[in-house]
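Tutorial, part two.
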Amino acid sequence: MRIGLIGCGNMARALARGWGLPLLCADPIGERAKSLAAEIGGEALATNAEVAERSDLVVLCHKPAQLQAVAEEVAPHARAVASILAATPLQALHDSYPARPVYRFIPSLPVEVRQGAVVQAGANGAGDAGDDQDPALDAAVSELFAQLGTLVVLDDALVDVAMGLMSCAPAYVALVAEAQIDAGVRRGIPAAQGAELVVQTLAGTAELLRQRGYDTVAVRREVSSPGGLTARGVDALERGGLRAAFSDALDAVLVDATGPSPNGPVEPARARR
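Running the prediction step on this input gives:
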C-alpha cells in the first residue's frame, strides 16, 4: 500500500517514523515536506493532488479548518482517505470525500516509537459508510495503524473525548515527570539523575499496568502499605487536587475540540468537590 501524507507537522512525522516506510509527502511549507521525505527515504511532491494521484491511501494531517480546501484538491484523485484531524467526524469526511472509503483515527505522539495509543472511529473504520467501504481495505488500513501501538475502536461520537485522554497525554505525562524531577532537585537530587529515575519508573509502571490488566488500583495498592510513605504521598497528591486537575484538563480540551457543552458551561472539577 502506497501511503501519502497531506501535511508534515509533528504528528505526521511521528506516523512516518513509526511506519518506517518511504511515504509521499506534501506540505504548504515545502522544506518541511522535503525534510521528512529525506529522513524516511520518501518523496516530497509539489501539490496535494500529486500525492493523491500516486497514493493508495491518503492520510490527512493538515489543520481541521483546511478540510474543504484540501478536499477540493485531493478528492478527485484519492482512492481512499484516512484522517487524523481533531473535531472532524466521519460524516464530515464522507461529505468532503463522497464515494470514497474514509477512515478516522486519532494517534498519540508515541506512535513514533510504536508505543502509542491510536483510536479508530467505528467498527473497521466504516461507521455508517455503507457501500463506500471495502472490507479488505478496511482490514488493511486498520492493520496499518495497529502497527503503531494499541488500536482501540470507539464510536465516532467518543473519538474527541478519547483524544483528550491520549493524544494530549504525552504533554501531561512530560509535565508530571518534570514536576517530580523538580521535586527531587529541591531535595538535592541532580536533575539528570532524577530524570533517569522518574522516566524509567514511568515507563516500567506503564508496562506493569499492562501486565496487570490495566488494574490501576491493584498496582497502587501493591506499592502503598497501610500508613506507609507511599500512602502519605498519594494522600498529599489527592489533597492537592490531582484528579480534579486532570478532569478540568479534559473539559478544557473538549471545549476547544467540540464547542461548549449543550447543557451550558462545565463547572470546574475543583469547584464540584
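Residues 28 and 41 are 20 Å apart (CA to CA). In part three we will examine how such features are distributed along the chain.
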